[in-house]
Amino acid sequence: MATFNTPGPISATVDIILGDIRFNASDRADTVVEVHPIDPSRQLDVEAAADVVVEFADGRLRVSHPRLRTLFTKKYGSVRVLVALPTGSEVQGDTAQGEYLVQGAVGTCRLKTAIGDIRVAQAVDVRLRTTGGKVIVDHVSGEADVKGNGDIRIRRIDGTAQVRNIGGDIRIAQFGGDTVDLNSATGGLSIGIAAGGAVELDARATVGDVRDYLAAAGAPERSDRIVKVRARCHAGDIVVHRAGAGHDAPQRSSRFQGWR
């Protein structure tokens, strides 16, 4: 375990070969890093944990594995990295295979994994990438840029959003920004528009239905705000509604149920 004096937000980067990463942000004046083998009984995991390097200088934390040119020609162990840091810190992660959990409120959040789920509680901006896993986010107060291959669930976005999914649904419960661009190859789209402002909707589903419930919700309150919604779906339904209206979740076309 490594402990550093950090009276304010820091920038933290975790770059490991294989393993799970957790950032826990809270009101604290220090940063604590723990590295453990995923399986303490597995020698490869124990060695991988011992190889991790922890560095801190000028408000920047880096937790990393030395990059191996032979990564794809030899076995390598998995580790679990836990970083407890001050609220509002910037976090960044990169792993070939592993899951992320971000608890508390962070600033900019950039996470990347080839295989693994990503879960984020609260961030100012997010840039999330996974080619095989779910993405679950509670609240983004700024910009959301998400690409995945699995179900994507975001409870609330206050800024602009661009969300791409290869295979899975995209569901945004409450969108309060001005511009959102959604695209799913195989999976439905559902977005709830926050109260206030008119909506410019550009939605197309190749195989599926577009269900626009905005008119049924009544005219919005007088406002100069215009929300631009662009939604594209190859195999699945698109559902647009006012946030909190509780309309049905999108469905894939029955002809494509076996694609995932």
From TrEMBL:
Alphabetized Pfam families for the sequence: DUF4097
Residue ranges constituting the DUF4097 domain according to the UniProt record: 20-212
Domain of life: Bacteria
InterPro entries per UniProt: Toastrack_DUF4097
Protein name, UniProt field: DUF4097 domain-containing protein
Gene source species: Glycomyces buryatensis
